[in-house]
Amino acid sequence: MVFENPVIKEILEKYRRIWAIYHASSVLGWDMEVNMPSEGIGERSVAQGELSMLSQKFLLEPEFVELVNKADGIEGLNEYESGVVRVLKREIKIQSSFPPEFVKELSETRSRATAVWKEAREKDDYDKFAPWLDKIMDLAKRAADYLGYDKYPYDALLDLFEEGLTTEDVERMFEKIEKDVKPLLDRILEEGEVPKEHPLEKVKYEREKMEKVNIRILELFGYPLGKRARLDVSPHPFTTEFGLKDVRITTRYEGFDFRRTILSTVHEFGHALYELQQDERFMFSPILGGVSLGVHESQSRFWENIIGRSKEFAELIYPVIKENVPEVAKYTPEDLYWYFNIVRPDFIRVEADMVTYNFHILLRFKLEKIMVNEGIKAKELPELWNEEMEKLLGIRPKNYGEGILQDIHWAHGTIGYFPTYSIGTLLSAQIGEYMKRDIPDFQEKVRNAEFSPIKEWLREKVHKYGSIYPPKELLRRSFGEEVEPEYFVRYLKSKYL
Amino acid sequence: MVFENPVIKEILEKYRRIWAIYHASSVLGWDMEVNMPSEGIGERSVAQGELSMLSQKFLLEPEFVELVNKADGIEGLNEYESGVVRVLKREIKIQSSFPPEFVKELSETRSRATAVWKEAREKDDYDKFAPWLDKIMDLAKRAADYLGYDKYPYDALLDLFEEGLTTEDVERMFEKIEKDVKPLLDRILEEGEVPKEHPLEKVKYEREKMEKVNIRILELFGYPLGKRARLDVSPHPFTTEFGLKDVRITTRYEGFDFRRTILSTVHEFGHALYELQQDERFMFSPILGGVSLGVHESQSRFWENIIGRSKEFAELIYPVIKENVPEVAKYTPEDLYWYFNIVRPDFIRVEADMVTYNFHILLRFKLEKIMVNEGIKAKELPELWNEEMEKLLGIRPKNYGEGILQDIHWAHGTIGYFPTYSIGTLLSAQIGEYMKRDIPDFQEKVRNAEFSPIKEWLREKVHKYGSIYPPKELLRRSFGEEVEPEYFVRYLKSKYL
């Protein structure tokens, strides 16, 4: 038993109904993306709103809060019990920061801003969206004020998605990226030895065949399809977990450029594995599940970049792709490898390669930061976006869809979220290097589909801790250091030079 | 606006969170049948248990109950407002009847009895299940005591599923069935003109092709697939609604005997239509949705029996079946019609035809009644089952799987549920006859896929009332009489003689 203290036990007993609401809300969210008939949205939104009010209500019930505070004062709790207190105190703090009217205003503004954003993007009419972006940013600043911060309001927003992350952390991280990766990108583009495009991008495939490829890859990984997991389809692939025993990923099928569907599947598998390898004893407790978005993204990026874009993986999956996409027979596993590793500056973040990806995030970070910390207004943004894009990647959007209107995140009101994508990307290379110290031939193992030692290592170093420790502490305990961009730079150099 | 009284408005505002929990619980239930990976069951059950405790808690909150009682005393509520009070008072009465320990005991006994039943059925070992059936029946009697009743404990259980239904109602209904349908069945079997079996039963089909047939039929019916509705697959077809704009049916594919999948789809469409044609103004209120299991079943049976097993329907769908099951080209639409209307005594209720179906229900009703009202014990049942089966259908089960172990209902603790199947069946013929008075050529319209007037009529007579009136009152208001088996007998005679 990991939970022995009677106060903790009482907390967990009361927490169960909150857990149940989270469970239900996750199922409703998954269903909305994967199954829901279009007109179901109105009733579903009302249900989700009511459920989130309920979970907040229960979390903030004085009796429950008192119990958590009481537990916080107890000496000698074990690390699991302390983890429970830590996570609940943080949740209570966040949920109690916002007055109900603010939560309502935020929720309504998000819904309306998202609708406006969709229309604005279709018509490429930024002016429509700009006032809504100002509203969203104003709400973000107010949220930061409610949450409190030491140095910058943006710190409070970053912390919501990645506990303990500060504006200065992110600045340090991107300084290194700009300093080291920018020259690397310029050199790659100049030398022209890394392909900028590949004929395999144009090859068409049948959806049913590609489903077989994805399922085969997941089987090789040991993904427990049908037992504890599913693979479904949605326009924007995602992972969701309803607990320990029901974890679901989605992928997308566009009918061409098959690395998109394969790498999406592999990426989401990484997220899923983090959830599937949690400690069974944490079930129904707040410490079950990945600790932060950045650490979660490190897992998905590890599988996508370190495993999925490796030569050994290309060799492993070449036969099954060839079998299902006959045109691939004209190419070698080496071709497949380079197709997965094209480097080409592109306007669209979600299509970006490993070298350019972080610059997309850097751009968004810079803009979010000046909007939140310095009050820059939405009308100035497109020009700033385009200038920054040109400076970082040497290309200039011809329309808003290629530029500032491409992401849904701002309309959704998620400000301070983007940097976690870069944290995950950097951390994945870092984890790759640590793994090599313990399993020097882990990439050889990929070629032979020996994924068990790789998964075991990830479990021991990351997964089994659930949310016991905050992300920075988890990294220090398991690896002796926090996010360090140097590993990623080394990884890119060894790959591309 | 249908809801104008301020007290009613306040009730509905407070009801919204209960509605949201029901919505969530329905989505979780649907997902469990259609999607859930097998090991997800443990966490899902816990979540469902917590949600049902929550909805009960909110329904019985003194403030809410007082408000409902207050509304009950108001003069001059309109029929919609009175409907809200009626439904909530009934729900409150039911939910407050059972002490929490009893609910827990019932829920645990159900889970364990279901597990034992599954094993007992696999091993054809009734003795294993018998003590659990006694426990279930004991709980049913205690439930009846908690609920209260005038004459028989079984009345209280019937009322749970079909408001106002009594043991005597059901006895009267079956007396007529036994008296009139039994001789009809004997005559059909004796004369031998109605087929007892058909070569189309053995024809195999491809699942993808049959999916096309089902989708085509649903399109002909005007089922709003993708907009407000879905069709999925589950071993036991069912319908569920998450509100007005998201209604889902399932069907089954065994790969042969295609009338099973087609009639399942048509049957579930009937349930779905009842929900889809509700009054939009009832959204989020307790009067949205079908009023009782019997009336619901009358809608599904109307589409299955009156439409789906008609000559005109066979003519309508013959081409699309032929296109997708080439072997059907050897047969005529008339063959198809008779294949859909075979009469053959069978051990298994869910495979039964229209003539024999009610005898399966009668048998179960007789046994439930004597167990609940007279305390007959489980060990005596198999013999009683087999005797009754022989008396009613002239066949005697060779094992328990063909007999008393075939249904999951008793293990689930649903006692008093079966009679609603017969009510629906009888009522469907009744509705067919009423419809003919208003739309004399409605069956001609089926041939031409003119379903709109049929759907409109059902909306006007049944659907649009939601749960405003109790089932018996709804029938009296719309049709001037309650369930009357005579219509069904006439229908069978005109079809088979």
Report on this structure.
The structure is a homodimer of 497-residue chains. Chain A has a domain at 6-97. In chain A, 63% of the residues lie in helices and 3% in strands. Chain A has helices at 6-34, 41-59, 62-72, 79-97, 100-123, 126-147, 153-161, 167-191, 207-221, 259-276, 293-307, 311-324, 333-339, 357-374, 381-393, 419-438, 442-447, 452-461, 471-479, 486-496, and strands spanning 229-233, 239-241, 247-251. The first copy, chain A, has a three-stranded mixed β-sheet with strand order 1-3-2, with helices on both faces. The radius of gyration of chain A is 23 Å and the shape is globular.
Short description:
The structure is a homodimer of 497-residue chains. With 497 residues, the first copy, chain A, is mostly helical.
Quick tags:
3 strands; three-stranded mixed β-sheet; homodimer; 497 residues; globular; mainly alpha
Largest sheet of chain A: 3 strands, mixed
Low-confidence stretches of chain A: none
**DSSP E strands of chain A, number:** 3
What value does the average pLDDT of chain A take? Answer: 96
Strand content bin of chain A: under 5%
Q: In angstroms, what separates the terminal alpha carbons of chain A?
A: 51 Å
Radius of gyration of chain A: 23 Å
Helix count of chain A equals 20
What is the oligomeric state here?
homodimer
- Helix and strand sequence of chain A: HHHHHHHHHEEEHHHHHHHHHHH
Largest interface: A-B, 41 and 41 residues
Q: Which structural class best describes the helix and strand composition of chain A?
A: mainly alpha
Helix content of chain A: 55-70%
Shape of chain A: globular
Sequence of strands across the biggest β-sheet of chain A: 1-3-2
